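[job 4417] fold queue: 2 targets
>>> target A
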Amino acid sequence: MWSGLPIAYLSLGSNLGDREDYLRQAIAKLSAHCEIKVLNTSAVYQTEAVGYEEQADFLNLVVEIESSLKPIELLDFTQEIENQLDRTREIRWGPRTIDIDIILFGQEEINSPRLTIPHPRFHKRAFVLVPLAELTKEVIYQGWTAAELLAGLEAGDQGVEEYKNSL
């Protein structure tokens, strides 16, 4: 069933409560889905908040999956996980127990009201590019690898450090 299915990359982040446990639970829920195979998980990185900055630091990682789900079905499932883990949406880019974004889904390009793939800001965010570069050396966006995109960011846009504990 798994051979030849699209590879997708998901960015997970948490900055409320037991951040490590929320990340762990989200990965477990992804793994438990019969149409998702978790292939690899990056290290965990601690990052400063982006957008709304009056909040605690995030723990972030990227998960590489293979899935027979359509992109919108994957979005529905990731939002279901967020709801199960008490995610609320009170402030844009505000604090959250868990955030799951679909960064890339095979070669798909989608621009709909509910879903944009590739994720519209991933190539400007070190907290996505650092763990993504750890998982893939492939060209992923407009002829660039994640490492090349990361190298193009301003030093002030980084704010990412490897977290001392791994999941």
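>>> target B
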Amino acid sequence: MITLDFANAMKECIGEEGLSEEELRGYSERALSALKELAGRRQPETAFLDLPDQDTGGIKETARRIRDGSGAFILLGIGGSALGPRAILEALSPFHNLRKRPRVFIYDNVDPSTLSTILSIAELERSFVNVITKSGSTAETAASFMILYKEMERLLGRDATGRFIATTDPEKGNLREIVRRHGMESLAIPPGVVGRYSVLSPVGLLLAEVIGVDSDELLRGAREARQRCMTEEPWTNPALMLSVLLYIMGTEKGRTIDVLIPYADGLRRLSEWFCQLWAESLGKLGTGFTPYPSVGTTDQHSQLQLWMEGPQDKVIVFLRVDDYGRDLEIPRVFTEMEGISYLSGHTLSELMKAEEESTELALARAGRPNITVGIPAIDAYHLGGLFIFFEIATALTGFLLGVDPFNQPGVEEGKNLTYGMMGKAGFEQKRVEVEAARRRKGGWRI
């Protein structure tokens, strides 16, 4: 079960920079209103709440075929189409390509050196390619898809199409049209599910099954977390309480930077996934909070100084793991060296937990608010719970801020300018605007 410890955000523990119970209770009515807005399902994009109830039979069958006949599984996507799958891969099958088959390559950019390297080391004749774009027009994904398709066609001829799985909108878009015309296999992203809320759709579940993770366990964890995170009492609802805490800290205390620091290497990518979710959902209309990815204990040695003595503009959210599933004892060597011999006989997990708790306390003593999210273990059940927990908390925070947590209008202008630069029909004026901007910039270069 997911836990939320927010003692170090309260005045009793950290002093004046903390909140009082009275302040929290003063937001109860607004919090309940936000929860009712989400539960009322007036926006189609709340469909992410239905994902834990889906039938995974088709996904499992596709994954079985990929596992049986694949040298590599290449996933093409960007944003939520890649961050979610990568979080699953690194949390539940670390160092996957060194230990298991099929090897997995996630290509989420348009850096030519990266794709060239993948093409050179993947066994393309035996590989499957999962192309993920709901709109079907994402330029980066479309470009890499076109390159992979041409290369696979060169190697396999007409059989190339059978090596592609399109994950896209069930009815519309360029990729859906390619599926219809070429008979390509496809999986559907439900119409109301937007990219950054899609990890528990086929976007993430196909990769999970390919690497040997039971997608039903991810969904079971999400179902049970959803039930708890939709209850109407903030003091028993961890997602609602987290959203209220971060909302008050951001709007009333000037703490607009939210650091997520999991104390586990396997959850590093989850922190990156959260950053897109939080930034793209909340950064609108001149408001929003800035996410900040981190990982413990590594970043105690790179960022903690700033958190302790820098600007009072952050809330640190720790992500604690109770059981790492394995452990190593620190041996009794160099016993004559007092400076390190104290570690002998302890375990790495003991040290990890001691470092985390010490960091929480040090921040609290410095009057720096911090909150701890806890899970018993890193497994499919609890990872699925974390996904829905953060998604619900994000949506609720958006409603508290008065923004739509499901759209991303600020991203569209950059896309449109790219379309113009690349010669897409209908975007000729955007090319003109880019060229004019280039001329204006010409005098300020050294």
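[job 4417] complete. Note on B: The radius of gyration is 23 Å.
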